[in-house]
Design brief:
Helix content: under 10%
CATH topology: Jelly Rolls
Largest sheet: 4 strands, antiparallel
Number of domains: 1
Structural class: mainly beta
CATH class: Mainly Beta
Distance between the termini: 12 Å
Number of helices: 0
Strand order of the largest sheet: 1-8-3-6
Strand content: over 45%
Radius of gyration: 14 Å
């Protein structure tokens, strides 16, 4: 199963974009993969990214600007309210960034 959310954000003065979502997980699930596609990626090369779940970094890395960012997670989540924060760096200061974040998950 997938959760997909499109967003539009303004990069900060250091070229960083944040996307935060709080989700109430009503049954235990397994997080399989995060895919982020950024349509306003900079033309100068790479982006670095991180995914934080409830204050703990669960994935980070870098990718070329023209490819989607993909993180294989394989995590089990108990039910309850969870906060996901996706951060990408490498944009121009104050650049408008459009993107889509997809989280693939399954049940135990």
């Amino acid at each position: 199963m997938k959760i997909s959310k499109s967003f539009s954000r303004l990069a900060g003065p250091k070229g960083r974009v944040f996307y935060r979502r709080t989700q109430n997980v009503v049954v235990p699930i397994r997080l399989d993969r995060l895919t982020a596609t950024l349509s306003s990626a900079p033309g100068n090369g790479g982006l670095s990214y991180s995914l934080v779940l409830d204050g703990k970094t669960i994935a980070q890395g870098s990718a070329s600007a023209d490819a989607p960012l993909v993180a294989e997670l394989g995590l089990r989540l108990r039910r309850g309210e969870r906060t996901f924060t996706f951060t990408a760096e490498g944009f121009e200061p104050n650049q408008v960034v459009d993107g889509t974040v997809e989280i693939e998950f399954g049940f135990f």
